[in-house]
Amino acid sequence: MSFHQPEITEFRPKPLQAFLGGIGIALSVHSLLVLNGSVLGVSGFLHRSFRGDKAALASVLGLALGGIAVGIIGDVDTPESQTTLLRMVFSGLLVGIGTKLANGCTSGHMICGLSRFSLRSLVATATFFASAVVTTHFAHGNDALGISGSLDWALDNQGRQFLGAILSLGTLWFVYTCSALKNGTGDSSKLVNRQIHSCANLVPNIPRFILRYLASFFTSLAFAFSLRLGNMVDPRKVLAFLVLPSSSAFDPTLMFIAGSALPLAALLYRYARAEKPRLGGEWNIPTSTKIDLRLILGSVMFGIGWGISGICPGPAVVNFGRSLYAGVGFAECAAWLLFMGFGGLLVK
């Protein structure tokens, strides 16, 4: 008598896509910092947007439209959820409460914070990563995540995602440069030569506050393309990373994202910052060094929520946009975001 063995799917890690995605993430983070003086922390965008903050709403809109754009240029299907709708609700709630308590998530603490060598962000990252690893181990079996195959270095058609990120940031910096030249605030001796001054006539006079909204929008749009290119929007790949190398399902893709994003973001922060934000305002960079129970508890809760679903705030908004275009997975994405927002509102 033979017994049917369940088929286990093999997935191949894509390091080149992840490496380029990390570069796009770092450039997006640095562009928002230099222009607006702000940290690209997606959980903060979501929490503030629920309270009506316009700049945060512009950032969330950029992420959602980025998800729609990802679908339009050939990536229609949303990643398959690795859990039930009820678990998605619970995951979103925990992530909302946790990120509000800890004041950050993977983008704010792991990318922006670590690139500034913040000890507070290091503690938060280590804590939520550890709790996510433990949660993934108990909530997901190896068979459900498949097995990891050999590395696939092909870029395939995902080069369009990287192009989308570069075009988004290129458009933003072009508009900024032209506006600066038109208003006489650009340093033409360093930025451009006289022949390029004519670009100032290609854009109208744009108020400074509009430029700041555009910076929020376009950096988030580029961030969305980069997340997709790095496959961080795929819950299975995230969970397959969190099971660690001891598992046959382990997928090192996210290591390649961090391997390009963190060094580049750190170098840009150290050597390519201006004395003040180019679009005015004050620096809005977290300066707290306090490591307390609120930070630890929030990071643990975020890690548990992350380990349940494999979703954190940035990919959640991108996948929501993709679901709007594809008509698939809308309920799961909407429920996660709704309860994340609700969880944040529960915390003072």
Question: Could you give the topology of this structure?
Answer:
Layout: E1 10-11, H1 15-36, H2 42-49, H3 54-72, H4 85-102, H5 106-115, H6 119-139, H7 142-145, E2 147-148, H8 159-182, H9 188-191, H10 208-229, H11 235-242, H12 253-271, H13 293-309, H14 313-326, H15 330-345
Parallel strand pairs: 1-2
Helix pairs in contact: 1-8, 1-10, 1-12, 2-3, 3-10, 3-14, 4-13, 4-15, 5-6, 5-12, 6-13, 8-10, 14-15
Structure write-up:
The protein has 348 residues and is mainly alpha-helical. 65% of the residues lie in helices and 1% in strands. It has helices spanning 15-36, 42-49, 54-72, 85-102, 106-115, 119-139, 142-145, 159-182, 188-191, 208-229, 235-242, 253-271, 293-309, 313-326, 330-345; strands spanning 10-11, 147-148. It has a two-stranded parallel ribbon with strand order 1-2. The termini are far apart.
Feature tags:
15 helices, 348 residues, single chain, mainly alpha, two-stranded parallel sheet, disordered N terminus
Number of helices: 15
Outline type: globular
Main sheet record = 2 strands, parallel
What share of residues is helical? 55-70%
- The class by helix and strand makeup works out as mainly alpha
**N/C terminus separation:** 62 Å
How big is the Rg? 20 Å
What share of residues are in beta strands? under 5%
The H-and-E topology, N to C, reads as: EHHHHHHHEHHHHHHHH
Kindly state the number of beta strands.
Answer: 2
Low-confidence region ranges:
1-7, 188-196
Output the strand order for the largest sheet.
Answer: 1-2
What integer is the average pLDDT? 86
